[in-house]
Structures are given as structure tokens and as C-alpha cells.
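Dear support,

I submitted the protein below through the web form. The confirmation email said the job was done, but the results page showed an empty box. After a refresh the structure appeared. I'm attaching both so you can tell me whether what I see now is the final result or a partial one.
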Amino acid sequence: MRHLGGHSAIALSEKSNRSLTDIDLSESEFPGEEPDGVTVSPDSFQYDTVTRTVEVGESGWRLDLYLVYHFPKFSRMIIRKAIQTGGVLVDGRGGKTAYRLKPGQRVTMTTPEIPREAPQAENIPLDILHEDADLIVVNKPAGMVVHPSRGHWSGTLVSALAWHFDGQLSSVRGPCRPGIVHRLDRDTSGAILVAKNDMIHSKLAALFQERRIRKEYFAIAWGSPNLDRDMIDLPIGHHPKYREKMAILKNDPDTKEAQTFYEVVQRFRGITTIRVLPKTGRTHQIRLHLAHIGCPILCDMLYGRQSQITLAEIEGKTPNGDPLLSRQALHAHRLTFEHPNSGQTLDIVAPIPDDLRQTLEVIEKCRYNR
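What the results page shows now:
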């Protein structure tokens, strides 16, 4: 383990003929990642206007789907921004993302040019779990956004990588995300892969696509699953009401299959530690699937009960005092895969971070099943 300007981590061993369903509406193909989007200041956009006529075979398509299909170089977040800011008109009137189109309607989109501004390099400490000539595995701390996005223009993993590995990262995803192969939520800690060149980036992306990278997460969750181990196989799509959330939506053409295998590590009174191995990688997949079976992740405000927890609450008392944990108790604990170039099997472990370990120690003391 190598640390670039940081402190050492504490190791804890553990263990038009195109179908609508072909259009990728997910914000990510990888588990627990934050929403995709352009990653520079909104002031950097330049604009152009394009008009298309809806064809018979496109009848009933959602407006955002239609635009994603016809303007593939733009991310879904750019498309949504254009719609919400009045940059998209349907027959001369403002449209909504879920509006269903009719044949013959004219859709006009004022499209922002894809920004080319690279993020600013920042001297931020990095905990390097593995590095070779082709790739890096970083132990991302909780609270760090992977790449710049609205409200998070600095302090990102991309900015840190730009400082420590300037000119040594892949450019496949453009200057805004050098080296980034996949992502993790801001408040999810743990192992994240970074590519040093375009060839290895493409190979790693193929391994993810073929599900040949084994991803293991550690979670502390409320409740207790009915089974010691099981596969949650439920489709995930965007929440119909809340933009920031995902939802389990059956019989909806906009959803994608999602499978999450889980195994109980230890049961306590009202709390369970869980080993999670996602088979697919949808946005918020682990958080949503565990919440669906009655076990929301500790301190996951979006899908659970609250954003923080105190010692008193774990002891079963009235909440008071400073928070013991203030972020979702989810950690990307292990990545196992065959190195695309050397063929060597890499088994890279990100130690359980101090905040989760300390929380677990309190749980073991206060909620042990006797």
C-alpha cells in the first residue's frame, strides 16, 4: 500500500429500429456510483440548435429518451439540463423529460457543446492500494466526489489524480475524467480502479461489461434479513417523482435488470453486518436493494432513516451527543480480477475505514445477541 501525501490506513482483513430497451438510461454501469454528467462550470457551455421530426416508430417515446438516442454524444444529465432550462421545445413549446412524443411533432434542442476544460490539479493525499505500469487502485475516502459535478468543483478524486499522476492517465472519457473507469458514491469509501492508458482503460471497461471483475462491499444495515444469504433480483429505474433517487419498477420499459448477492456476516439486535457482491452495477443498486428487503444501510438518508447516528442511539437511548457516524455505512472492500496485460490475478483489499470500524465496535458492545 502506497500513500501519496496521506496517512496509513488501518488494515482489517475480511473477507429507428433500435428498441427503447437498448438505450442506456442508467447513470452508471457500475455499483454505487454518483450520477453522470458534464464536469465543468455551467458558464463554459457553448450552444447550437438542431430540429428533428418525430417518426412513426418513435411514437410514445419519452422526450429525454428520444434526445438521448438522437444525440448520443451528450450525457443524460446534459439532456435533462437542456430540457429543464428551456433548451428543448416540442412544437415550439417547452417540454418535460417524461413527455410522450407523437409522430410528426418537431423537437428543437439548443445543445451545449461538450466542454473540454480539464479539472484543476489539487495536492490531495491519496491512499494507493495497488499500482503498476497500467493501472492504479485507490482507496477513496468517504466524502470525496470522484469527478467534478454541480456543487462539487474541487476536492475531487480526479483533481487529486491529476496532481499525482499528471500525464499518466487514460483519456478515453475525456479531459474531465482522466483515468476514471468506474465511480463510487461520494459517501461510499473503498477501492476504485484507475487506468493509466487508453488501451488498459478499454480492457478494464470490457471486464466490467463482461462481469469479470468481482466486487465485494461491506455494509452495516438496519434490521435483519430473513435469509443468511440470497440473490436480490429486482429491476432498477429512475424514481418517477424524486430526481435524486432510483426505484424498483417492475414492468417498466425504462428499467434495467439488477442482481445483488448478499451474505450475512453477523446479526446484532436490530443491526446486521452484510457482505455484498453485486452482479450488475446500477446507480444506488446496493443501497436500494438492501432497503427493499427491509435493511437500509446505516446513515443512508436517501433510502433509510437518517443521515447520522449517535452513540446514544446505538445504545437504544434518546439521541444526543456528537454523531458517531455521519455517512452511509457502505465500503467497497475488495476488487478481484485478472490483470488485462499480465494475466495475474489481482486481489486488492481496501481496509475497513476507522469510522466504520469504530461504529462496529460500539455495535458489538451494545447490541450483541446473547
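Response: this is the final, complete result; the empty box was a page-load delay. DSSP finds seven helices and 18 strands in the chain.
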